[in-house]
Specification:
Layout (H helix, E strand, L loop, with lengths): L3 E4 L6 E4 L9 H14 L1 E4 L6 H8 L5 E2 L3 H4 L13 E4 L13 H6 L16 E10 L7 E5 H6 L3 H7 L3 E4 L1 H6 L8 H6 L3 E4 L1 E3 L6 E3 L5 E4 L4 H15 L5 E4 L6 E5 L3 E5 L9 E8 L10
Parallel strand pairs: 2-3
Antiparallel strand pairs: 1-2, 3-14, 4-16, 5-16, 6-14, 6-16, 7-13, 7-15, 8-9, 8-12, 10-11
């Protein structure tokens, strides 16, 4: 059966049906999925049945896997998922029990509720993120996505010229310090040093200009910190207007893929006494944004 792509809007978010992603992909289906991602940036597959190995195997169709940064940050925590290719996006501890309110990993994960782009804090940032839903709470826990290409297109020409060539410093510690809920060791901080990334880049799949922002973005290099942060905050506020945002309401068996090179996303609140078990595999971009087209 050939796949069917059903867009939610002309250029942002689509549903893909007619394919079982737990099985090896035919080349034509792989190309069709890649083309859909390049056009719509976020795609969802419903009613999938995936274990961790199958999710990783599917992701490898679209690039090399980026190992989970969480396990590097939390070396003192026992993890329930052994593979470093799979990030545990859940509220569960190593024994499968709901995390305590004061659990270090839960507090660290609250930063996922800030608008961000996966792994922009790495020199070679995230490419595609693929999040699969094992268990979903009855209410809440949606994920919102912002269309950064449309947000760039909507900027005045004068603002576009102002942003040309700007480089922001990204750090995972910047997003965490905004909530002030976890203390990190010097060893942890040294394991993920700040990196520079373009504020505006060209999305390689569509050749469209896009904003590249995240809660990880600390300041603009070569500019007073306060001035740079105001630019970043203003741009995030602009890019997350309702006209650029789509909310995905999860159901069990959903696999959602988003392109970190041209989107931001954030998790929404839910009753954290209820189980929410999602697992993410992320591919690596080809290089730093500084080494790619502006």
């Amino acid at each position: 059966m050939s796949i069917t792509v059903t867009p939610t809007s002309p250029d942002f978010f689509a549903e893909i049906s007619g394919v079982d992603v737990s099985k090896p992909l035919a080349p034509a289906d792989c190309l069709a999925i890649e083309n859909a991602i390049n056009r719509y940036a976020v795609v969802v597959f419903h009613d999938q049945k995936l274990d961790d190995d199958q999710q990783v195997a599917f992701a490898r169709n679209f690039g090399p896997i980026a190992s989970s940064a969480l396990k590097l940050r939390h070396r003192d925590i026992k993890h329930r998922i052994e593979s470093s290719d799979v990030a545990d996006i859940s509220n569960l501890d190593s024994e499968g029990k709901v995390l305590r309110p004061d659990a270090r990993r839960r507090l660290d994960g609250l930063a996922n509720r800030l608008w961000h782009t996966d792994a922009s804090f790495r020199a070679v940032p995230g490419g595609l993120s693929m999040l699969y839903a094992h268990v979903i709470p009855d209410e809440g826990g949606d994920t919102e996505f912002a269309d950064m290409r449309a947000a760039y297109d909507a900027l005045p020409d004068a603002k576009k010229r102002e942003l040309e060539g700007l480089i922001a410093e990204h750090s995972i510690w910047r997003s965490r310090e905004q909530l002030g809920v976890v203390q990190y060791t010097e060893e942890e901080r040294a394991s993920l040093p700040p990196v520079p990334q373009r504020v505006v880049r060209t999305h390689p799949g569509s050749q469209r200009k896009t904003l590249y922002l995240a809660a990880h973005a600390s300041h603009i290099i070569g500019m007073p910190v306060a001035d740079g942060r105001l630019i970043i905050l203003d741009l995030i506020e602009h890019a997350t207007q309702p006209r650029f945002v789509h909310a995905h309401k999860w159901r069990q068996g959903d696999l959602v893929i988003w392109d970190n090179r041209c989107t931001m996303h954030r998790a929404r609140p839910f009753d954290t006494t209820k189980v929410r078990d999602l697992r993410r595999v992320t591919t690596r971009d080809v290089a730093s944004t500084l080494e790619q087209a502006a």
